[in-house]
């Protein structure tokens, strides 16, 4: 999976239930000229949460080019973004003679690392930490650098793509995903970092524990077994130690509870929360 696709899919999850829809890799021509991400306002209303810095005043059509930590945001990338903007504007307008107003379009470049060379070549102005305005010929492009954004909850989805271990950890712990399936997407993101040699303090074991704790009531017995695979009994107990027998019975199916009990991760039927804790202490000893 490509970086920009991961980026677009994460934004798809982030804007779930909002007045915006996200299109990943929309086809802009017969020659498969693909723009990384487009965020389109689909109706009236306000996004219920605080948007990430730099993306907090979205227009009707928001075209985004994304560059991972392996790619540079350079002049050619800017030319491509302008070209995609021209093609996209023609595509969604009624005709080339009646183009939608330019005011409905906003151009963004999100890049994991700061584009030092580009900043020295074109008119460049910082509006706030991690957010810049770049004048490329006649167009104003907003550049957002996740690695420079403040550690705040609203910036968590962009921090996931900062390629900075601590910021990625912050992003994972503060990003509130909308769909359970996004856990698979995040798993792919962490695996991709690992394959590319980016040392992450947030391990796959940490991810699995978070997944189990936050999605117990939505996980089938088979998926639960897969999610818990590889975790030691002690880690299973730690992940579930905050749940009482009553809570387990309310949120899990009988098959799920039995599986956890077989692995020593859930208290036996009828035991109190304190009794469950006592059992865990005896097992550790």
Poorly predicted ranges: 271-285
Termini gap? 45 Å
Number of helical regions: 12
Estimated helix fraction: 40-55%
Secondary-structure element pattern, one letter each = HEEEHEHEEEHHHHHHHHH
Largest sheet, strands/sense/barrel? 7 strands, mixed
Structural class: alpha/beta
Strand content: 5-15%
Question: What do the pLDDT scores average to?
Answer: 82
Give your account of this protein's structure:
The protein is α/β, with parallel strands linked by helices. It has 2 domains: 3-163; 204-278, no CATH class. It is 42% helix and 14% strand. It is built from 12 helices and 7 strands. It has helices at residues 3-14, 75-92, 116-121, 156-159, 165-174, 182-195, 204-215, 221-228, 233-240, 245-251, 254-262, 273-284, and strands at residues 20-24, 37-41, 61-67, 105-111, 124-128, 131-136, 139-144. Strands 1-2-3-4-7-6-5 form a 7-stranded mixed β-sheet, with helices on both faces. β6 and β7 (139-144) form a beta hairpin. α1 (3-14) runs antiparallel to α6 (182-195). The relative contact order is 0.09.
């Amino acid at each position: 999976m490509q970086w920009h696709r991961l980026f677009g899919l994460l934004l798809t999850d982030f804007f779930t239930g909002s007045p915006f829809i996200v299109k990943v890799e929309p086809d802009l021509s017969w020659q498969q000229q693909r723009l990384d991400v487009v965020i389109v306002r689909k109706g009236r209303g306000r996004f219920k949460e605080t948007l990430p810095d730099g993306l907090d005043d979205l227009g009707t059509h928001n075209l985004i080019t994304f560059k991972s930590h392996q790619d540079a945001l350079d002049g050619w990338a800017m030319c491509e973004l302008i070209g995609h903007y021209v093609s996209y504007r023609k595509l969604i307008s009624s005709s080339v003679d009646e183009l939608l107003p330019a005011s409905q379009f906003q151009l963004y470049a999100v890049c994991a690392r700061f584009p030092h060379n580009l900043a020295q070549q074109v008119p460049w102005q910082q509006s706030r930490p991690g957010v810049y305005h770049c004048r490329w010929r006649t167009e104003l492009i907003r550049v957002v650098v996740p690695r420079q954004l403040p550690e705040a909850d609203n910036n968590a989805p962009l921090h996931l793509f900062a390629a900075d271990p601590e910021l990625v950890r912050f992003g994972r712990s503060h990003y509130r995903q909308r769909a359970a399936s996004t856990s698979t997407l995040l798993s792919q993101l962490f695996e991709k970092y690992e394959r590319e040699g980016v040392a992450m303090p947030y391990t796959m074991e940490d991810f699995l524990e978070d997944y189990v704790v936050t999605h117990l009531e939505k996980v089938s017995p088979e998926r639960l077994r897969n999610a818990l695979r590889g975790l030691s009994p002690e880690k299973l107990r730690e992940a579930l130690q905050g749940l009482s027998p009553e809570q387990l019975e309310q949120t899990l199916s009988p098959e799920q509870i039995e599986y956890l009990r077989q692995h020593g991760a859930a208290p036996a039927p009828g035991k109190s929360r304190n009794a469950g804790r006592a059992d865990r202490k005896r097992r550790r000893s």
